[in-house]
Every structure is written in C-alpha cells, then in structure tokens.
Specification:
The protein has helices at residues 2-35, 45-61, 67-70, 81-86, 88-97, 109-112, 122-133, 151-154, 160-177, 202-207, 211-222, 239-254, 274-285, 312-332, 352-357, 374-384, and strands at 75-79, 100-103, 137-145, 184-189, 227-232, 261-264, 267-269, 290-299, 338-343. An eight-stranded parallel β-barrel has the order 1-2-3-4-5-6-8-9, surrounded by five helices. By secondary structure, the protein is of the alpha/beta class. The chain has a single domain (62-384), classed as TIM Barrel (Alpha-Beta Barrel). It catalyses: Endohydrolysis of (1->4)-beta-D-xylosidic linkages in xylans. It comes from Spirosoma pollinicola.
C-alpha cells in the first residue's frame, strides 16, 4: 500500500506540474497577443475574449489558478465589511484569490473610537472572524494618522501629558483588543510631507517629532508578537519624501525602536516609471525591514480626463504595469522580506479613486461585476515568472 500511495503521489505531482506549465504558457499567450502587438489598439474584442475564456477554463479545473495559488508570498485586499456581508460576488472573489485582508477603513480612529472612551468593534471584529474562518491573516490599518481623526480628538483640550495619554490609550486599547488576531499593524500613516519634512499634524503639534517612535513602543507593549509597520504614500513620485522616510526608518532601527516593516502604498498610474519604482523599493529593502506593497491600485485615467475612453491600448498598459509591479517586487525584495502585495479593494466600482476624483477609472483587477480583467492575468503572469 505504501508503494502504491507513493506512486500515486508522484503521478499527482507530475499532473499538477504539467497543469502549471500549461497554465503559464496560456497566460503568456494571452499577454503576448494583447500587449506585444504593435497595433494594440486594433485588437478585436472577440480575440481578447476567446483567449481570456480559454484561461478561465483552465482556471476552473486547477485550484492553483488563483492569485494566492500562484504567489510565493501573501496576496491581500483591503476590504469593506458591508460589501463582504451583502455581496456574494465580492465575497467569492476575495475567498478564491486572497489570503490576507487589510482593514480598509473600519479600524481607523474615527471608526473605532468615535467618542472618547467608547469603542465600536463591530465591523473590524466581523473582518477578523471572517478571516479566521477562511484561513486568512489580517493587517490592521491604521492606528495613528492625521486624517480620520474623530471630532472629540480635534477638539481635545489638554497639555502634552494629556495628549500622550490619549494617543497611548487608543493604541494600546486597539492593539490589545486584537492581540493574537490582528498580527500586523500600520502603526503610523503618512507622517511626512512631499518636501521631506514631518507633517505638522495634530499629533506633531501636541507631541513633537518623536511621537512616531513612541507609537511603535506603545503598540509593541500591547502585543509584543505583532509586526509593526510605518506606511506612506507617493514615495515613488517624491524623492525628498522617500529619502526622509528612509532616514527615519534607519534611525528607528538604530535606536532599537520595535519596527518590523514599511508599507509602500503604491497608488500609481499606467505612466509611472518602472525604473523609479525599482529604485524606491530597493532603497527601502536595503533597511532589512519587511516590505509591504500595501495599497496597490493603478489609475488608467492618469490625467483625470472627463472624456476618458477605455481602449485596448489602455487595458494592455494597465496589465503590463500590474505585471511589472509583481516582477519588480519579486526581483528586488529578498524572499525573507516579502510581506506581500495588497490591492486596495477588489472591484473597480469599490475603489476610493472614483470618489476621490469623480472621474472615470478602472484601477483594480476585477471589473464592477467581479469578473477577472486583463490586468488580473498580467498581474498573475508577473507572480508566476
């Protein structure tokens, strides 16, 4: 019986390997047909649909044909708990393709502590419970930020000691409540301006420049096992900011402040320079910290045009950029530092970018009906190469 089982295992392994090879070849075929054609704008929708349908047929027969199935590191999505509870397609896309959840908005200060000392755990608890049931990890976003501050905090009257107690109490109450359940946190979010100076936020004004280090210390005290991240945006566009963040990260490490990683939000466009992306990711990776591409979405309509037209060429550029992000991350970040890549929500209609700019865009991997887009396959190819 042992020999028979061993033979079966070998045969199954061979079949799985064969499927993986066939699947990778089909992805390459799709990508080459749609992105390497010098007349990409002229690609017929019928051809694209036929090839994509062939890939979906392979996907339905092979459980590895999902983002989490082909990736060598966690693949995450920022999740809206209301959509998760009410939309079956949203839930299905999440469960099939992702093994990590970020709390998109529900764990921000104004949601968790809308009134002083009164915590509302409902939505974040729901995400944590869902993640536990589906064998997913949860990344908490975010403990301290200059946005999403409740009114009672902006109106708070007190000296620096009172402000310190306010900040410490919020951090430790939240991290303590989710100790062992939320195993990583964005402790401080977007503390720098574009020119590299510290943002004169409400926290900076009342607590001084070193409030950032103390936030990490307080979070670590509440859950010594949690992985703690600094998270920021636009570093790929703003050299002074990226240099300032890099210097702060090195300083925190030198002082033995308990920081484990850095999040690069990665709200970029189809025109974002891949060489710049590579350089910034390499710069942060040189700190030795865990690297999290934490809020990935890619604008198609980078000029925010009111007359934007979604062409095949734009779709191809979008797929190419998603592929490039995955390849750069795999190629630049050491395996031990690869915390993962997180998409900032699932379907195009769920994206914050549509509300933020009021212009048409299609920045994510799934369309408004949670069908896989060409970009999904571009991203998957980047993960598999």
């Amino acid at each position: 019986m042992a020999n028979y089982t061993a033979t079966n295992n070998t045969q199954n392994s061979t079949i799985r390997s064969f499927r993986a090879v066939v699947f990778a070849a089909l992805i390459a075929l799709l990508f080459n047909l749609t992105s390497c054609n010098p007349k990409a704008d002229a690609i017929s929708p019928e051809t694209e649909t036929i090839v994509a349908s062939s890939l979906r047929a392979v996907a339905s027969s092979d459980s590895s044909n999902t983002l989490k199935g082909v990736a060598s590191f966690p693949i995450g999505a920022a999740i809206n708990p209301q959509l998760l509870a009410s939309n079956a397609l949203y839930k299905s896309a999440l469960v099939k393709n992702y093994n990590s959840i970020s709390t998109e908005n529900c764990a921000k200060m104004n949601r968790l502590q809308p009134k002083a000392g009164q915590f509302n755990w409902t939505d974040t608890d729901a995400l944590v419970n869902f993640a536990r049931q589906n064998n997913m990890k949860v990344h908490g976003h975010t403990l301290i930020w200059h946005v999403a501050v409740p009114t009672w905090v902006t109106n708070f009257q007190g000296d620096s000691l009172a402000w310190e107690k306010l900040m410490k109490t919020h951090i430790q109450t939240v991290v303590g409540h989710y100790k062992g359940s939320i195993k990583s946190w964005d402790v401080v979010n977007e503390a720098f301006e574009a020119d590299g100076s510290l943002r004169k936020s409400i926290w900076y004004q009342h607590l001084g420049a070193d409030y950032i280090a103390r936030c990490f210390q307080y979070a670590h005290e509440a859950d010594p096992q949690a992985l703690l991240f600094y998270n920021d945006n636009n570093s790929v566009y703003q050299t002074k900011k990226s240099d300032a963040v890099y210097a702060m990260l090195k300083n925190l490490k030198q002082r033995n402040i308990p920081i484990n990683g850095v999040g690069l939000q990665m709200h970029i466009t189809v025109n974002t320079s891949e060489s710049i992306l590579t350089n910034v990711i390499r710069q942060y990776a040189s700190t030795g910290l865990l690297i999290h591409i934490s809020e990935l979405d890619i604008r198609m309509n980078y000029s925010l045009s009111t007359t934007f037209v979604l062409t095949d060429a734009v779709k191809n550029a979008h797929a190419s950029k998603y592929k490039a992000i995955a390849k750069i991350y795999k190629g630049v970040v050491a395996k031990a530092q690869q915390f993962g890549i997180t998409n900032w929500n699932l379907g195009d209609s769920d994206s914050w970018l549509l509300t933020e700019s009021k212009s048409e865009d299609h920045p994510l991997l799934f369309d408004e009906n949670y069908n896989r887009k060409l970009s999904f396959y571009g991203f998957m190819q980047g993960l598999t190469e």
